[in-house]
Structure formats: structure tokens, C-alpha cells
Amino acid sequence: MKEPIKLTNKKITFIPFNVTMTSADTEYTLTLSHVNELMIQCRTANDVRMAFVTGKVATPTEPYFTIKAGGGISFENINWVSVTLYFACSSAGKTVEILKI
Length: 101
Description:
The chain is mainly β. 0% of the residues lie in helices and 52% in strands. The protein has no helices and 9 strands.
């Protein structure tokens, strides 16, 4: 994986990541470290399933979270040393955009 582009605004570093879900209903992962804030959305108007544990999103199994088409989710004021995110979509070829701060 290529090193993401870093956009810096004096005190804040924004690092974008993309996860392309090539196949429908297949689990894709992204592991991040040193996360203070996080924003997640689908690039297109599609629902995306997200979880913090494996085995929940490909064949929807509780607990998971749905990021609704056209929507997003953000986590603020967090201090995660490391986190793995799991994604899936019912449509193939969709991309999840993640912005780590």
C-alpha cells in the first residue's frame, strides 16, 4: 500500500485512506494507529456495513453499523493507539473514504 498523502494545517495532520471493496458482500479491512479523529463515508451513494470485529459485515451479523447512502460517520476526541475497521457493501466496486486526524 502506498503511503497516504499528508495535508498539514500547522497543528493538525489529515491522512486520507481509501478501501476499495472489489467484490460484493466481502469483508475488507483497514488497520490504523494513533487515531485522534476519524471520518468515514462511501464515495458513492451506497450503504456500507462497518464493524470493529471480523466476521460481521460480509454476511450481516450483529453487531455491525450501517453507514447509510449519502451519509457518513465521525469519531471525535478519541485516542486509539490501534484500531482495525471492517467494511462490506452489497454492491461490488465501491470505495470507502476514511480521513484520519
